[in-house]
Specification:
Rossmann fold, 2 domains, 5-stranded mixed beta sheet, elongated, binds S-adenosylmethionine
């Protein structure tokens, strides 16, 4: 074996796809049901993304690949959810079992196509169901190793804690989990756009900004004020950060005004992050073109894996598989 291939389930706009490209892994199949995410993926990553609902897929739709990556929906795991969290039984997060079903179908029908490695990426709360993942993987002959990372140690100015759970087939050997790059210090100010359009600023007189006295700590969030005036805003939506610090976890921002907010040092005004700044905070390259609306773009970038971290992890999987 000298060449590693990957299927990218729930591929979104291509966080894992870009990481695979950078790690020298060939993506052969990519699947997502969101047409805007698929459009962004095919425009920017490779031409393999297909708009498909995983519940309708069978083993015949799945390409032969060495790695299956699947950052399945976190909607029923995340504590950001206000109502009852149904975890792996919820409508979104139960998509985990759809990948297990496809894997069973491949094992039964085309055993020569069984992947050597599985890679799940998901939110911190995944630890609550880690035993289930372990059992589900083990039943299919994969040994798992979970690793918890924070993107802020990987060259992007964002605090984002995420699990990367790797399953390796028929081997208990494992590669060393990459050490976090703790010496790296990043600040949002180096990732901001210049000449930001008026629509991102909170200049309307209905909004009022109150600075708060707080201390800056290296590599930590630094809230410098509160923005009031938004109708029905939750607390986190009112927080305003300094560009001298990192920003909170970016997410899909569905519902308006949920973007991170900063005090813009140039204009001395408060504004929300732009889609390009979301892309940068996730480590997407500058030549990644945004060809969908702002709200679709926030969704794509908020959903994605942080590219530098995913690249490092995928490179380790690749080197491990090549060493077998
Ligand atoms: C957390 S995102 C994955 C992002 C991706 N890993 C990346 O790095 O860009 C989850 C994705 O699952 C997709 N999805 C949710 N339900 C699906 C289904 N039934 N079939 C296919 N895709 C689905 C969503 O559209 C979303 O893009």
């Amino acid at each position: 074996m000298n060449h590693i291939t990957m299927n990218d389930f729930f591929c979104g706009g291509g966080g894992f796809g870009l990481a695979a490209n950078q790690a020298g892994i060939e993506v052969v199949g990519a699947y997502d049901w969101d047409k805007y995410a698929v459009k962004m993926y095919n425009h920017n990553v490779n031409k393999h993304a297909q708009q498909m609902d995983i519940t309708k897929m069978t083993w015949r739709d799945v390409k032969k690949a060495d790695i299956w990556s699947f950052g399945f929906p976190c909607t029923d795991l995340t504590k950001a959810r206000m109502d009852e969290r149904k975890k792996l039984e919820g409508d979104g997060s139960k998509m985990f079992y759809e990948v297990m079903r496809l894997l069973d179908e491949v094992i039964q029908n085309v055993p020569e196509n069984i992947p050597d490695a599985l890679l799940v990426e998901n939110v911190y709360e995944l630890h609550e169901v880690m035993d289930i993942l372990k059992d589900e993987f083990y039943k299919r002959s994969y040994y798992i190793k979970p690793a918890l990372y924070n993107s802020k140690w990987w060259g992007v100015p964002q605090s984002r804690e995420r699990w990367y759970v790797t399953g390796l087939r028929n081997t208990e050997k494992f590669f060393p989990i990459v050490q976090e790059q703790k010496e790296s210090t990043v600040k949002m100010k180096h990732f901001l756009e210049k000449d930001v359009a008026e629509k991102y600023f909170y200049t309307d007189e209905k909004y009022s900004y109150t600075p708060i006295a707080s201390e800056r700590k290296e590599n930590e969030l630094w809230q410098v004020g509160v923005l009031e005036g938004g109708k029905g805003w939750l607390d986190y939506m009112k927080r305003v950060y300094s560009p001298e610090s990192i920003i909170p976890t970016v997410h899909t921002c569905q519902g308006g005004h949920r973007q991170f907010k900063i005090f813009d040092p140039e204009t001395k005004k408060v504004r929300k992050g732009t889609p390009r700044e979301y892309a940068r905070a996730q480590g997407f390259p500058e030549d990644y073109e945004i060809i969908v609306s702002d709200s679709q773009a926030y969704k794509v970038f908020g959903n994605a894996v942080s590219v530098p971290l995913a690249t490092a992890h995928l490179r380790n999987i690749k080197n491990f598989l090549l060493s077998l």
